[in-house]
Design goal:
Length: 388
Amino acid sequence: MPARDAVAWNALIACQVRHGRPAAAAEAFRGMAAAGFAPTAATLCTMLKACTSSRAVRPARQVHALTVLACHGDVIMKTALVDLYMSCGCVEEAERLLIHMERPKDVALCNAVLSGYVENGHFREAFLMLGGNEPNRIALTCALSACSATANLAYGLQVHCKVLRCGFDSETILCNALIDMYAKCGWTAGARVVFDRMSAKNILSWSCMIDGYSRHGHGEEALDLFERMEKAVPTVWPNAITFLAILSACGHSGLVDEGRAKLHLMKSKYAIDPGPEHYACFIDMLGRAGQIDEAWDLYCSLCANLTELSAAICVAMLNACISNIDVVRGNTVAGHLLEVDPQNTRNLVLISNFHAAARQWSVSDESRKVIMNKGLKKEAASSHVSMG
């Protein structure tokens, strides 16, 4: 362009952000300043989105300072700032912005605060905020996410009633959130009622319901639902998450042959390459069923073919060795796991437990000393992938 104005620079920056290139957006932002153009409100809002997508707190604070200097303090800018700080985990800074706002708080701002509370695990604050406002679709979805995370069935039932009263019970996103909430609260029957009444089911709906059955050991029901999905009209194609849910269901119910068939189906019919999490799930399934030799053969083939061995695969194989008291193979896998992910506390504890189970007391004590010396803290474990 022979001559670039602020609109052209803004268009370039927005394009970079829209296509997930925050570094390129920052470079264009610096180019705009070097060309002598002051950032407009649109420029700063776009740069806040770039910082949000890359979770860049320090550049975000610099952009925040520019908004103050330029007196761009409208509700749209404040909403973008609140969303940014919440996304970066800076909840207190977001709350300070909210407290000092002079304008009335609009729906978009309330939704940004509410989703930020849920994302950062501040569920009490989220529930309190919900109690003081008339919730919309986004707020109700956030509320259901909070109920899922806290397994709060009583509050979840109240939110469901609100969904019905507001006439949102035909909306797929909210129904998916309800299925996930009921499943994580342990009421699969309630989840299935919501699922069966849905007028439009997408792949997330099917995957959430299958995962709900998986969580509670209902492998046969999960398989039956998967087969129904394959025959559904309009056609719904399973994705990698769906197959992870069905493999987990087979594993928790001891359905090894069915799990093996689904892993093969994933590749042969749907052309989906299994990821490390799928192989880890299958190895765990084989280990639970006592089929350690097949698990070991698969593990060895993955070690040979994968450029980078996954920690999840190593953990699954080590668990299989522990449950089948295979000390020799377990020692090999423990060595691989230390190479792949030496700083993970759960892995170190697992290795220590393996050595203790194998009566290798000195090695087990050494592993625990490493944990104490590094000041590491054990994290809560989970065997499921969230569908929400």
